[in-house]
Amino acid sequence: MYLKYRDLTIEGLFGRVSDASLERAIDGDSQDPAVLKTLLSPWAESCLERMAERSHDITMRHFGKTIQLYAPLYLSNYCDNQCLYCGFNAKNDIERKKLTLDEVVKEAEHIAATGIRHILILTGESRAHTPLSYIRDCVKALTGYFDSIAVEIYPLAGHEYAELVAEGVDGLTLYQELYDEELYKKMHPAGPKSDYRSRLDAPERGAKSGMRSVSIGVILGLADWRREAFFMGLHARYLQNKFPDVDIGISVPRIRPQVSDFKPAFGVSDMNIVQLITAMRIFFPRASISVSTREYPAFRENLIPLGVTRMSAGSVTSVGGYAIGEQRASQTEQFEIMDHRSVKEVCSMLEKRGYQPVFKDWVRV
Amino acid sequence: MEDVLKIGNKAIRNRLFIGTGKFASYPAMKEAIEAAGSEVVTVALRRVGSGSKTDSILDHIPKGCVMAPNTSGARNAEEAVRIARLAKAAGCGNWVKIEVIKDTKYLLPDNLETLKATEILVKEGFVVLPYMSPDLSMARRLVEAGAAAVMPLGSPIGSNRGVKTRELVEIMVREIDAPVIVDAGLGKPSDACLCMELGCAAVLVNTAIAIAQDTAGMARAFSDAVKAGRLAYLSGLPASGEEASASSPLTGFLR
């Protein structure tokens, strides 16, 4: 499927679509990738309100008036990669830190005290500093605090994912970041992450190894967003068809400023994000779609009825940041946070908008 | 004689069961259950708090309601059994609605794993309500295994498409010697009314009530529709033929 579309240009992918096929794409239930292509095309922009209405209707029926909350917990920022757009880039002169198990527990206590029960643990990509055994130990320390633990770490082998599952991890988040192979090479010049294929196959290894939810994503701003979103959609569909019992999640983070002076080459407007989220919702009615604190508060709020089902709240993206206070930790953060509201503030915003903040939606068996 | 539905050792008068997911808040959920006068509610164990400081859904279930925790999240019999045991240990009683779903696209149940879980949980003393794809043979086997009722889907969860499985549900109502409770897909009170007219013992509704603008109003509408459908069924619905009957009876010459 991928090969069928891989070499098409932007124009080839998103050529003129008729009003009739646009309508069919918005109102139908077809699984044909051509539908996603249509929904992501520039031509669909004229139908954005209709797409939003359909997306809202589908999301309501499948998820109701609820938003699942989670928080990220950064274990370490040591990294062997040199991703041009990331604050953890090995070449960046930042303070490197890895939490001790005692510090992990302190972070967990701080996060759990806000009511959060779903946690996403993150590291940079450094097997030397954060080997699998360390991540396993961290998971062991966290199971008492959280009902759901997901990992966003370097790609693992299948048996390694299985080890984490056995320890109590139920979710895997792993963004390809960029589906365009040429640009991928440029953006990831060194380190294990420069291996495009190994990263691309990792979500599949996770699903095969017993992960209950697998989230994939692209970093918006590194390439043409329509094309990237389309390939992410193909990837998600492939995973969904191959692993029907795994919940597939989608994230569409926009690139944020970080410590280096990297400037994204492709603009992605709020309108583009709305088109992307509503298109994904129509094509993947039951997929979870998350929006992180990378987005500014008002925009996050406006996205809620359009298809979003998960939000991070009260996030700190620096290592040890929850316990020591964000201000002091900001030097080590992966990216700049736009929504600084506490979990409590996010909850009251959701309630005001008629949504129930859901803290717990998983049971470890 | 009073019309009651007996499940386990309970006598249930209100035949609208309500699912508790998707509501904007726990108070809104409670208000809807009370407005409908429902006596049986299902709760996903995955949503039940585990000692966190946050509000617990269980505190908002009206007193006197029978709670049937469901095994949402289970992908096989083993997981469903474990979730049911956890629910019992958490004080949710001994009813369980078995949901074993391996299909995240449509949330269609796995009947075979559901049967396996039913066999185990019945032996452990649970009142088992299996959610299933409407299949007569499987329904028979579930009842043989001791299921207290069978819960065929009307259409996929959250689809609001109504009783798309009508023919199969009708056959089950005729043939199965246990309550048939239609669960999932009922989008309108008239869908619920139809199920009751067909002779179903009860219906379970969640999405259509939870996402209505006025949830309490919609809960009441569903409850009234269920009562009307039940009364119509008990009163003996006249058959409705599509064609008019001949004015000269075909067998008139026999007189």
Describe the protein.
The complex is a heterodimer of chains A (365) and B (255). By secondary structure, chain A is of the alpha/beta class. Chain A has one domain (2-358): Aldolase class I (TIM Barrel). Chain A is 42% helix and 12% strand. In chain A, strands 1-2-3-4-5-6-7-8 form an eight-stranded parallel barrel, surrounded by four helices. Chain A is globular, with a radius of gyration of 19 Å. In chain B, helix 1 packs parallel to helix 8 (215-235), helix 2 packs across helix 3 (111-123) and helix 6 packs parallel to helix 8 (215-235). Chain B is globular and about 75 Å long. The model of chain B has no long low-confidence stretch (mean pLDDT 92). The interface between A and B is medium-sized, with 32 and 35 residues.
Supply the key terms.
heterodimer; A: 365 residues; alpha/beta; TIM Barrel; 8-stranded parallel barrel; 16 helices; B: 255 residues; 5-stranded parallel β-sheet; 3-stranded parallel β-sheet; 8 helices; 10 strands; 35% helix
Q: Write down the CATH topology of chain A.
A: TIM Barrel
Proportion of strand residues of chain A: 5-15%
Number of domains of chain B: 1
Within CATH, the superfamily of chain B carries the name: Aldolase class I
Structural class of chain A: alpha/beta
The helix-and-strand class of chain B reads alpha/beta
Report on the biggest sheet of chain B: 5 strands, parallel
> How would you write the strand order of the largest sheet of chain B?
5-4-3-10-9
Helix content of chain A: 40-55%
First-residue to last-residue Cα separation of chain A: 36 Å
Q: Give the CATH level 1 class of chain B.
A: Alpha Beta
| CA radius of gyration of chain A | 19 Å
